[in-house]
Amino acid sequence: MKNQTEQGEILELSVRVESEFENDMLDIVRAFYPYIKINPESDELYIKTLLNKNKAQIIINYPLNNNIHTKKLSSDTENSILLQETEEVLIKRKAKRFFKNNLYKFLSVLCGVSLPYGSITGVRPTGLFYQLEEEGFDAESRLINEFYVSSNKARLIAETVSNQKEHLQKRNTDDIDIYVNIPVCVSKCSYCSFPSSELKYVKNLMDSYTEKVKEDINISLKIIKDKGKKIKRIYFGGGTPTSLSANNLSVLLNCFENTDYDEFTVEAGRADTVDKEKLDIISKFATRISLNPQTFNEKTLKKIGRLTTVEQFMETYELAKKYSFYINMDLIAALPGERFEDFEYSLNKTIELKPENITIHTLSLKNGSDLKNNNYYDFESNEVKKSLNCSYSMLFNAGYFPYYMYRQKNCIAGQENTGYAKKFPCLYNIDMMEECSDILACGAGGISKRIFSGGRHERFPSLKGIKEYIERFDEIKNKKIDFFNL
């Protein structure tokens, strides 16, 4: 079933999958949003995969013009390298690639659309690049020819990997990072789905929350000491940590008074939460802060629910520049009502300010956000593509290089988020995204992570709600201690 929208024809379908790779198949279908919308009442797309030791086959059925369109694809004709594998894990890896690539080809022809990242659906495009290199391939060419990644995105991935490698090679198995989560903001942006609370609703809990997070941090520092680990990066995120009062912010930062570390980031994303008193406190510890305009268009700020003004941001930025930490600034492409010229204007303003880091995000229609709940649909894919291409070329010409990247589900036009730096990339961001370091998370909604030999990961998520975190802290504390004693 097809409906007419501002983008053209949109395909609606129900999806039935018979495959041990069901989630991967569904991820490919979802990657075509909004060109494909899943509707249980529509015509059915049926996907079946067959895998044994010698052969992988995918069958796709879809009613096309009232006729059943069936496509059978077999590895013995499409991907014979699969037949040469002997280890089960490698057979499954090759099969999954084969199934995803061919389903992508089918849907790309059906919709008349080529996605910038082809059949890559994971959060970490760089992960596949590293994997292909380990297999002995020219990874950049392989991305283009086998996975249908556009040449400019394959180049972006390759450059990001190149800029990460020196850091990754220096990692030690005893290194560990600390993340402190402050899931509070002064207001909720329309695009946000993070489990953050608006300050006005939880203000009476902030003193108690601070005390519990302080205890959480101290327990974590003891775990690190007992395990003989070395702290490398500390990251205060959220939410907006600077939503805390100056006193509570000081209480938490002072936990690290006698701690050695290489990098310390504090997100100060909202200019309306930052003043000289808080910057004085932060400057005693932080090597980096994130101060995020998102856009330099006043009307857009109001539309997305940010209470700050462009003038207020500029005043805060000038104040922050007086300190020794280096600064990251975030921009978002495809914000409601904005077109390429609006984004280009904001990017020019950002480059003029010369922050050490600039992170370019693409708007993601996240489940639970106001935009998604209200069926936001007001963008042109070519405009978004133009904005992302422009950001790469303009930042490159201004001396910035890409150092980490990731993708989100329901990202507008299938684009990505990329962090750019001049001399000093955020190493915590690389650690987190490339999953190369243990992370000990503190606070509500934080997720601790352990990396084991062979690439196995274990995660321990804390409780998300602030009130629940406070009330059940002893339970969380004991589980965290057990988790790091595994």
Using only C-alpha atoms, the radius of gyration works out to 24 Å
What's the number of helices?
A: 18
Structural class by SSE content? alpha/beta
Overall average residue pLDDT: 90
Overall helicity: 25-40%
Total DSSP E strands: 19
3D structure, described in words:
This protein is α/β, with parallel strands linked by helices and about 475 residues long. About 40% of the residues lie in helices and about 25% in strands. It contains 18 helices and 19 strands. It has a 9-stranded mixed β-sheet with strand order 15-16-14-13-12-11-10-7-17, with helices on both faces. Strands 1, 2, 3, 4, 5 and 6 form a 6-stranded mixed β-sheet that branches. Helix 4 crosses helix 5. The N terminus is likely disordered.
Write the layout of secondary structure elements.
Blueprint: E1 2-5, E2 8-18, H1 22-31, E3 36-38, E4 44-51, E5 56-64, E6 67-74, H2 75-78, H3 88-111, H4 125-134, H5 139-146, H6 151-169, E7 175-182, E8 184-185, E9 197-198, H7 199-202, H8 206-226, E10 230-238, H9 246-253, E11 263-267, H10 276-283, E12 288-290, H11 298-304, H12 310-320, E13 326-333, H13 340-353, E14 357-362, H14 370-373, H15 381-397, E15 401-406, E16 417-421, H16 427-434, E17 438-442, E18 447-451, E19 457-461, H17 466-471, H18 473-483
Parallel strand pairs: 2-3, 2-4, 7-10, 7-17, 8-9, 10-11, 11-12, 12-13, 13-14
Antiparallel strand pairs: 1-2, 4-5, 5-6, 14-16, 15-16, 18-19
